[in-house]
Amino acid sequence: MNTIDSRAPVSPGEPAPDFALPVVDGAGTVSLADYRGKSSVFLALFIGLWCPFCRRAIAKMAATEPELKALGVETLAVVATPPENARLYFKFRPCSLRVAADPALSTHRAYGVPKPDSTPEFTTALETTRINPDGEFPEPLPIPDAAALVDKFDGYTQNETDRADLERQWPQMKGQFLIDRDGVVRWANIESLAGIGKFPSADTILAVAQALPRS
C-alpha cells in the first residue's frame, strides 16, 4: 500500500513521540510527558467524528477504562477535529474518557499511522473490500456501505465541520499504542484496509496491560 507519509509506524520497544494537545473536557493541554514516571497510557488515535467506527470505538474505550485504570494504565483518545466540534459532540454524548483534539493529525504523523495515497487502485480496493467489524450486519458490506449503515443505526448526521474534516483526512488510518510509564511503546495496532472499523477487543487490550511492569 502506497502512503503519503514516509516514516514507518512506531513499533514496540521504541520511544513514544511526545505531544501536547488541547483537551476537550476543559481548558489547557495534555501531553505524554504528563504521564511519564506516573502511569502507563493506552493511546488511541482516531480521525474526525464523522467516522462512525471511531465514535463506536470511543464508547468501547470508555467501557474498558476502569479496568485499565485498576492496572495502572490511563486512557487517552485523540480525535482529529477542532476542540469546539468535539465539545459539541460530547455535550450530547457524554464520555468519561480523557479526550484530546488534533485536527491537523500531527500525532498520527509523529506515530507513523499511515494515510494511503488515493490512487485508482486504492479506490477500487476500498469499494470492493467487505467488512463486518462488530458482526452486526447480516453479511460483510463494502466499506462505504458499512459506514453509511452505522451512521444510520446511530442516527448521526454530519455537520459542516465533519464534512470539512472528512475532505481533509480521508483515507487516514487509525492506530492504538500501549505506552509504559517510561514512555516506551510496548504494543501497537495499526489499522489496515481490511481491518477498517475493527477496534482491538477489551480482552486483547487488558491482556497486554496486565503484562506491563507495575512498578
Strand content: 15-25%
Topology order in helix (H) and strand (E) letters: EEEHEHEHHEEHHEEH
**CATH topology grouping:** Glutaredoxin
CATH-scheme architecture: 3-Layer(aba) Sandwich
CATH class: Alpha Beta
3D shape: globular
Radius of gyration: 17 Å
Strand numbers in spatial order across the main sheet: 5-4-3-8-9
At the fourth CATH level, what is the homologous superfamily? Glutaredoxin
Determine the structural class based on helices, strands and strand pairing. Answer: alpha/beta
Treating each run of at least 4 consecutive H or I residues as one helix, how many helices?
7
How many domains?
1
Total count of strands: 9
Binned, the helix content reads 25-40%
What's the mean pLDDT score?
93
Largest sheet: 5 strands, mixed
Identify low-pLDDT runs.
none
Q: Compute the separation of the termini in Å.
A: 40 Å
What does this structure look like?
- By secondary structure, this protein is of the alpha/beta class.
- The protein has one domain (20-208): Glutaredoxin.
- 34% of the residues lie in helices and 18% in strands.
- It contains 7 helices and 9 strands; from the N terminus they run βββαβαβααββααββα.
- The protein has helices at 52-70, 83-92, 106-110, 120-128, 143-154, 160-169, 202-210; strands at 20-22, 29-31, 40-45, 73-79, 98-101, 130-131, 141-142, 175-179, 185-190.
- The strands form 3 sheets. Strands 5-4-3-8-9 form a 5-stranded mixed β-sheet, covered by helices on one side.
- Strand 3, helix 1 (52-70) and strand 4 (73-79) form a beta-alpha-beta unit.
